[in-house]
Amino acid sequence: MTQVKPIYIVDTSTFIKLGGLPRDIFLPLWSGFQGLIVEGRIVTHSEVKKELSGRLDTKEDDLWIWFREMDERFSIARDPSPFQIQKIQEIYEKYPQFIDLESDKPQADPFLITYAMELMEGNQLPITGIKYDYYLVTEERSGTERKNLKNPPEITRIPDYCKVYGIKCIDLWGLIRLEAWRFSLTE
């Protein structure tokens, strides 16, 4: 019988949400997250690290300090692979809003999406005897889920691209549910 394990490709927004949950209060959640990192089941892209460093007060922020401490344990795609570059170009041709060529800010979304595609293609993390399900974890909402839209939604957000390209997409709470984590109050 083949064992199935989820691999989580984590977006900047999820790390920021996690960072809003103080470690001293939500220690079991942080410990579970760290355990998945050590197991190699939480992965991300170097572009996420760039986004985080641009959004956080990197000298004092608890999330940034934790992220740097975990950096050596993370499976992080350090540079875009030829596969990712090719897929970014293909998606950009179909959806020009996929990447803002005018921006000088880090844009992790295209790299996360194509990294997920690469993992699903089996070009990375080949391990025999275990089947992996890949989930892109983000706190972004798809265009169809956002309220007060006057026009039909464009494909602009991670969940939208995930739907188009057959990538499973969940948020932090979805990850917690898939892992069947339960937390209780103690005295």
Label the CATH architecture.
Answer: 3-Layer(aba) Sandwich
Q: Classify the beta-strand content into a percent band.
A: 5-15%
Uncertain segments are none
User: CATH homologous superfamily name?
Assistant: 5'-nuclease
> What would the principal axes of the Cα set say about the shape?
globular
Tell me the domain tally.
1
Oligomer state of the chains in this structure? single chain
- Largest sheet, described in full? 5 strands, parallel
Give the ordered list of helices and strands.
EHHEHHEHHEHEH
What topology emerges from the helices and strands here?
Elements: E1 3-10, H1 12-19, H2 27-39, E2 42-45, H3 46-55, H4 62-70, E3 75-77, H5 82-94, H6 108-121, E4 130-137, H7 158-165, E5 168-170, H8 172-178
Parallel strand pairs: 1-2, 1-4, 2-3, 4-5
Helix pairs in contact: 3-6, 5-6, 6-7
Task: List descriptors.
187 residues, alpha/beta, 5 strands, Rossmann fold
Characterization of this structure:
- This protein is α/β, with parallel strands linked by helices.
- The protein has a single domain (3-178), classed as Rossmann fold, CATH 3.40.50.1010.
- Helices cover 44% and strands 14% of the residues.
- The protein has eight helices and five strands, in the order βααβααβααβαβα.
- Strands 3-2-1-4-5 form a five-stranded parallel sheet.
- Helix 7 links the parallel strand 4 (130-137) and strand 5 (168-170).
- Helix 3 runs antiparallel to helix 6, helix 5 packs across helix 6 (108-121) and helix 6 (108-121) runs parallel beside helix 7 (158-165).
- The longest helix is centred in the middle third of the chain and has 14 residues, at 108-121.
- It is globular.
- The relative contact order is 0.19.
